[in-house]
């Protein structure tokens, strides 16, 4: 980096020197052209006055020297001043380089900005934003690793014990073992989904997606099959189109998790409603079920990872956490509340509407 900065300094100095040389040379050439008339006039006048030619030649050389030496002095002085100015201008880059070289993977504090120029401030600001994104990505990676080790340690130990005792187990116990394996597979899938969500959060979104034709309608059959297990049904209330800026795959995953969560904790043989409405504050995707609802004191913590306040539905407590993360990626507002007509839980997601649609 320092070599690159020195190279930049030399290139700047060479450019300034070239400009000075061309301008000074042009000035001297022009003045010499003007002085030629004086020199010719002096030669003619000297021959008439019988002035020694040596004296006249010395005078002419004085004229040439009076042009060249001040120009050369000004040229060298300008180069020296330019070199000092360049070093002072590039000094913040040296400082920034030193800060970068002293950093390690555990140091994420912002770089100092001395405010010497807008260009250096822009570079420092861009680096600080990059450091924030990297810090966020590293912290989420650590959290993901911690979640995986925490959630898989116990089931793996249990499966190992069951395998060791497999010969003495009954078919029912073997079936339970398979069920535990399926549960662990779902947990792994959800954790991997969470890791992919973090990458999406860093990259950002910019694609228009129609919640109706791209997400909800294609998922109708899958939702109905999921709900039929507990004798539940689904009713849709949708506009013709409802565009948001987002990711189609993530929005489909969000809908599936909403339906699966509502089906798991709602009463059997009840109906689930999925509604999309256009309001002044954005697009509302509302999923409402019929059941016991949730204790008001637990509503705020429903989206915490690995938090389960109701043991009826199984799972590991990642469904609504994934929903919350997808909402953050889409800059959507997630609202969870109980409703009383009839009693149950209502999840309302408010998306910023795509202004182009």
TrEMBL record:
Cited PANTHER family: SENSOR HISTIDINE KINASE YKOH, SENSOR PROTEIN BASS
SMART domains linked to this entry: HATPase_c (SM00387), HisKA (SM00388)
Name assigned to this protein: histidine kinase
Catalytic reaction annotation: ATP + protein L-histidine = ADP + protein N-phospho-L-histidine
Gene3D superfamilies in alphabetical order: 1.10.287.130, Histidine kinase-like ATPase, C-terminal domain (3.30.565.10)
Keywords per UniProt: Kinase, Membrane, Phosphoprotein, Transferase, Transmembrane, Transmembrane helix
Documented EC number(s): 2.7.13.3
GO annotation, cellular component aspect: plasma membrane
């Amino acid at each position: 980096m320092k070599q690159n900065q020195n190279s930049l300094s030399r290139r700047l100095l060479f450019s300034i020197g070239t400009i000075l040389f061309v301008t000074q040379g042009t000035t001297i050439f022009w003045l010499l052209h003007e002085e030629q008339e004086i020199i010719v006039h002096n030669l003619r006048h000297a021959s008439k006055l019988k002035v020694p030619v040596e004296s006249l030649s010395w005078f002419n050389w004085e004229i040439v020297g009076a042009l060249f030496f001040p120009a050369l002095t000004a040229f060298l002085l300008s180069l020296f001043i330019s070199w000092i100015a360049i070093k002072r201008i590039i000094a913040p880059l040296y400082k920034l380089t030193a800060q970068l070289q002293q950093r390690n993977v555990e140091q994420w504090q912002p770089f100092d900005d001395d405010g010497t120029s807008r260009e250096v401030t822009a570079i420092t600001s861009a680096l600080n934003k990059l450091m924030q994104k990297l810090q966020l990505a590293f912290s989420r990676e650590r959290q993901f690793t911690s979640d995986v080790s925490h959630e898989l340690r116990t089931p793996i130990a249990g499966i190992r014990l069951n395998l060791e005792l497999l010969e003495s187990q009954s078919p029912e116990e073997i079936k339970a073992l398979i069920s535990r394996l399926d549960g662990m597979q779902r947990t792994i899938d959800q954790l991997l989904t969470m890791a992919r969500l973090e990458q999406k959060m860093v990259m950002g979104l910019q694609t228009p997606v129609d919640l109706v034709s791209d997400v909800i309608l294609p998922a109708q059959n899958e939702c109905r099959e999921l709900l039929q297990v507990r004798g539940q049904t689904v009713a849709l209330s949708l506009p013709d189109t409802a565009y948001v800026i987002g990711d189609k795959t993530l929005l489909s995953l969000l809908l599936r998790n909403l339906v699966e969560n509502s089906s798991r904790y709602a009463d059997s043989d009840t109906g689930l409603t999925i509604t999309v409405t256009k309001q002044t504050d954005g697009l509302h995707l509302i999923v409402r079920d019929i059941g016991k609802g949730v204790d008001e004191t637990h509503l705020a913590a429903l989206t915490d990872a690995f938090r389960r306040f109701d043991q009826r539905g199984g799972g590991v407590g990642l469904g609504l956490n994934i929903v919350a993360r997808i909402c953050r990626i889409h800059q959507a507002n997630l609202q969870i509340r109980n409703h009383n007509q009839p009693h149950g839980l209502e999840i309302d997601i408010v998306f910023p509407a795509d202004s182009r649609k």
